[in-house]
């Protein structure tokens, strides 16, 4: 029962009360003493009424007022000191778990006492709590193994980074696949004041493999039990998170809760928000032992130093061995064992307010943790030769991608390297679509490479380079997502690679491009059918109506009757779709949005003396779709076109510097076009 107690998405959330200091000094002050249970307010008018110049004032009243004023001034000084911390001013140095990496950004300085919980039963305590110093490193541990976990953890990490102001140290227990993916992401993000350490999850399997686990997380779902052994002995405390967590507040607020631990409390946990451990969900439901509703381990605060002194390893192992004699297996992985230990040792737990782990799933009481979305702090939800290289997408291509990708897979049986330009939410939507598609799930040679959205321009050539970089074949067919290759093109290209000796020559094999304006097309199954559709006006040579120069050098008139490959020469603005060796030059990343992104690449191939050869029995067809946002900007915005012209000139100057005299023809061709 996945959704019953460990919800697929969790939301950590908390209300935040901001104190604003007005510009006027005498607006409203609260005296330290109270009269009739109410604070004594001192406005400017009231201060005049009690001034020494007022005949109604007695010496005793003046003395009392002066005493209250001294108390008020002292309280105001204390308040200003507290608020200076909240604004990020450097506090006094304090010992703690510090990383060698320090942030140049503002520290949190926010103490728990400055935030009032809006939900009954979850309000902050009135007493002042120690603030988190702005240079104090916050340690976060996450178990993440496999493709699915690495996708989920990206959303978690981004939500933490979005709100944080302190240096962060991530401790990731990962397998080799997840480590490769996440190391690449952190490297490309280049986020300051963030340190990442990886721990080999495969080496920890022997520690927990003896525990039968029925939960979908498998053996990795038990690894939080061995964090006291896995993490460095010098690490005193850590926040442990499931991968299906999303933060809606600064993680420093949760880190500050460690200061509230008392006595032998070593675990910070939120009460489980389902009835799972009450054992009343269905007939003969028999959960592991727990205190009341039990605790959810999606968010855990661990005092590692104290746990080690308590011999935590021995404690949980003995408990698990004893309970497994009757339970036979865990249903909820580490959560069952944590709860069984707590049942025997309730003094170990510091119960966190439920807004620190709002469990959004079926059969939970999560709505009792918040009144509005803004109150939330954290939520928990849960042997090839030629490869096709493609990129997508801008926002307008969402529906096109989903439809076209399945269609491409039906036309092309070879491997595909696909770069996707998505937000976190869109990546999750695409994943759900892919998992629900019989066509895509039936393919095991399609690689999806997500480039996360950033900035206002579509980085088309960056996406192409990402797709090229991750190909595993010696040859690549460079295509776009809105083209369908002819049936059997993969096998035809494999034979052509051998026939034209691409392994030992610099050739770019051209696949002629056509287009249709019809959304419903009976796709031609042969060259003869395609020629017939050309004659009837069902198909056209690609961009015949708007950009003839882009594909005119292919010489479609010759292609109609050609039976053998033929060579064509480069011309200005030529941008065919080609098959090349994997070691071909990258696309120029400076070209973003619409305009010259493929033209520049073909020019580079020509400068490196690639021979352009048209394949006589190959073709691809562009399918219609709405104009992209970038082409609309190109057509409507003069400044956009001016910038593109400047970029083209810069690229041509670079070509001249790199290729010398041979590059003069590109300047001449551009001037004559």
From TrEMBL:
Keyword Repeat on entry: no
Pathway: Protein modification; protein glycosylation
GO molecular function, one term: xylosyltransferase activity
Catalytic activity reported: 3-O-{beta-D-GlcA-(1->[3)-alpha-D-Xyl-(1->3)-beta-D-GlcA-(1->](n)-4)-beta-D-Xyl-(1->4)-Rib-ol-P-Rib-ol-P-3-beta-D-GalNAc-(1->3)-beta-D-GlcNAc-(1->4)-O-6-P-alpha-D-Man}-L-Thr-[protein] + UDP-alpha-D-xylose = 3-O-{(1->[3)-alpha-D-Xyl-(1->3)-beta-D-GlcA-(1->](n+1)-4)-beta-D-Xyl-(1->4)-Rib-ol-P-Rib-ol-P-3-beta-D-GalNAc-(1->3)-beta-D-GlcNAc-(1->4)-O-6-P-alpha-D-Man}-L-Thr-[protein] + UDP + H(+); 3-O-{(1->[3)-alpha-D-Xyl-(1->3)-beta-D-GlcA-(1->](n)-4)-beta-D-Xyl-(1->4)-Rib-ol-P-Rib-ol-P-3-beta-D-GalNAc-(1->3)-beta-D-GlcNAc-(1->4)-O-6-P-alpha-D-Man}-L-Thr-[protein] + UDP-alpha-D-glucuronate = 3-O-{beta-D-GlcA-(1->[3)-alpha-D-Xyl-(1->3)-beta-D-GlcA-(1->](n)-4)-beta-D-Xyl-(1->4)-Rib-ol-P-Rib-ol-P-3-beta-D-GalNAc-(1->3)-beta-D-GlcNAc-(1->4)-O-6-P-alpha-D-Man}-L-Thr-[protein] + UDP + H(+); 3-O-[beta-D-GlcA-(1->3)-beta-D-Xyl-(1->4)-Rib-ol-P-Rib-ol-P-3-beta-D-GalNAc-(1->3)-beta-D-GlcNAc-(1->4)-(O-6-P-alpha-D-Man)]-Thr-[protein] + UDP-alpha-D-xylose = 3-O-[alpha-D-Xyl-(1->3)-beta-D-GlcA-(1->4)-beta-D-Xyl-(1->4)-Rib-ol-P-Rib-ol-P-3-beta-D-GalNAc-(1->3)-beta-D-GlcNAc-(1->4)-(O-6-P-alpha-D-Man)]-Thr-[protein] + UDP + H(+)
Region described as Disordered: spans on this chain: 42-110
Membrane-related topology note: Single-pass type II membrane protein
Xref: InterPro entries: Glyco_trans_8, Nucleotide-diphossugar_trans, Xyl/GlcA_transferase
Biased composition (Basic and acidic residues): 59-78
Transmembrane segments: none
GO biological process: protein O-linked glycosylation via mannose
Keyword annotations: Glycoprotein, Glycosyltransferase, Golgi apparatus, Membrane, Multifunctional enzyme, Signal-anchor, Transferase, Transmembrane, Transmembrane helix
Pfam families referenced in this protein's UniProt entry, alphabetically: Glyco_transf_49 (PF13896), Glyco_transf_8 (PF01501)
Protein's UniProt keywords contain Transmembrane: yes
Subcellular location, record wording: Golgi apparatus membrane
GO CC annotation terms, alphabetical: Golgi membrane
Database matches in PANTHER family: GLYCOSYLTRANSFERASE-RELATED, XYLOSYL- AND GLUCURONYLTRANSFERASE LARGE1
Family note: In the N-terminal section; belongs to the glycosyltransferase 8 family.
Descriptive protein name: LARGE xylosyl- and glucuronyltransferase 1
């Amino acid at each position: 029962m996945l959704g019953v107690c460990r919800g697929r998405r969790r939301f950590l959330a908390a209300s935040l009360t901001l104190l604003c200091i007005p510009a006027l000094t005498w607006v409203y002050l609260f005296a330290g003493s109270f009269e009739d249970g109410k604070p004594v307010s001192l406005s400017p008018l009231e201060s005049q009424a009690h001034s020494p110049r007022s005949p109604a004032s007695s010496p005793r009243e003046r003395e009392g007022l002066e005493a209250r004023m001294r108390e008020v001034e002292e309280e105001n000084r204390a308040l200003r000191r507290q608020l200076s911390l909240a604004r990020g001013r450097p506090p006094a140095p304090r010992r703690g778990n510090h990383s060698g990496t320090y942030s140049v950004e503002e520290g949190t300085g926010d103490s728990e006492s400055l935030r009032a919980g809006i939900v009954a039963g979850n309000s902050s305590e009135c007493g002042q709590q120690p603030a988190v110093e702005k240079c104090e490193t916050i340690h976060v541990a996450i178990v993440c193994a496999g493709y699915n976990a690495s996708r989920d953890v990206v959303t978690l990490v981004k939500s933490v980074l979005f709100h944080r102001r302190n240096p962060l140290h991530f401790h990731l227990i990962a397998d080799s696949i997840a480590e490769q993916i996440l190391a690449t992401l952190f490297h490309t993000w280049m986020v300051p004041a963030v340190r990442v350490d990886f721990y080999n999850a495969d080496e920890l399997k022997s520690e927990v493999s003896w525990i039968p686990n029925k939960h979908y997380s498998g053996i990795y779902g038990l690894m939080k039990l061995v964090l006291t052994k896995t993490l460095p002995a010098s690490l005193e405390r850590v926040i442990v998170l499931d991968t299906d967590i999303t933060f809606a507040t600064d993680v420093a607020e949760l880190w500050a809760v460690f200061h509230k631990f008392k006595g032998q409390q070593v675990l910070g946990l939120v009460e489980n928000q389902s009835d799972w451990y009450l054992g009343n969900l269905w007939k003969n439901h028999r959960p592991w032992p727990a205190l009341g509703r039990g605790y959810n381990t999606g968010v855990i605060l661990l005092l590692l130093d104290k746990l080690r002194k308590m011999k935590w390893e021995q404690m949980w192992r003995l408990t698990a061995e004893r309970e497994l004699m009757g339970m036979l297996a865990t249903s909820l992985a580490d959560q069952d064992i944590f709860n069984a230990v707590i049942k025997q040792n309730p003094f170990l737990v510091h119960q966190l307010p439920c807004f620190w782990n709002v469990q959004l799933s079926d059969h939970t009481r999560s709505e009792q943790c918040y009144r509005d979305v803004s109150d939330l702090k954290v939520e928990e939800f849960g042997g090839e030769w030629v490869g096709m290289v493609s990129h997508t997408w801008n926002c307008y291509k969402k529906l096109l991608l989903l439809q076209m990708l399945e269609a491409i897979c039906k036309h092309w049986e070879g491997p595909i390297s696909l770069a996707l330009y998505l937000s976190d939410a869109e990546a999750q939507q695409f994943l759900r679509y892919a998992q629900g598609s019989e066509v895509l799930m039936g393919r095991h040679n399609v690689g999806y490479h997500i480039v996360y959205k950033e900035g206002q321009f579509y980085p088309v050539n960056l996406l192409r380079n990402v797709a090229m970089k991750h190909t595993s074949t010696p040859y690549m067919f460079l295509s776009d997502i809105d083209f369908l290759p002819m049936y059997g093109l993969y096998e035809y290209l494999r034979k052509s690679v051998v026939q034209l000796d691409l392994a030992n020559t610099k050739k770019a094999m051209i696949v002629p491009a056509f287009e249709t304006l019809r959304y419903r097309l009976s796709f031609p199954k042969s060259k003869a059918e395609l020629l017939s559709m050309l004659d009837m006006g069902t198909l056209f040579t690609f961009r015949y109506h708007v950009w003839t120069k882009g594909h005119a050098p292919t010489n479609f008139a010759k292609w109609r009757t050609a039976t053998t490959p033929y060579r064509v020469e480069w011309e200005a603005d030529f941008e065919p779709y080609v098959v090349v060796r994997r070691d071909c030059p990258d696309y120029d990343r400076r070209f973003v949005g619409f305009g010259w992104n493929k033209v520049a690449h073909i020019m580079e191939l020509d400068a490196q003396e690639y021979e352009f050869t048209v394949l006589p029995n190959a073709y691809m067809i562009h399918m219609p779709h709405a104009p992209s946002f970038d082409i609309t900007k190109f057509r409507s915005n003069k400044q956009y076109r001016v910038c593109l012209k400047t970029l083209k000139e810069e690229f041509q100057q670079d070509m001249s510097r790199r290729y010398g005299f041979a590059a003069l023809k590109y300047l001449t061709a551009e001037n004559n076009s």
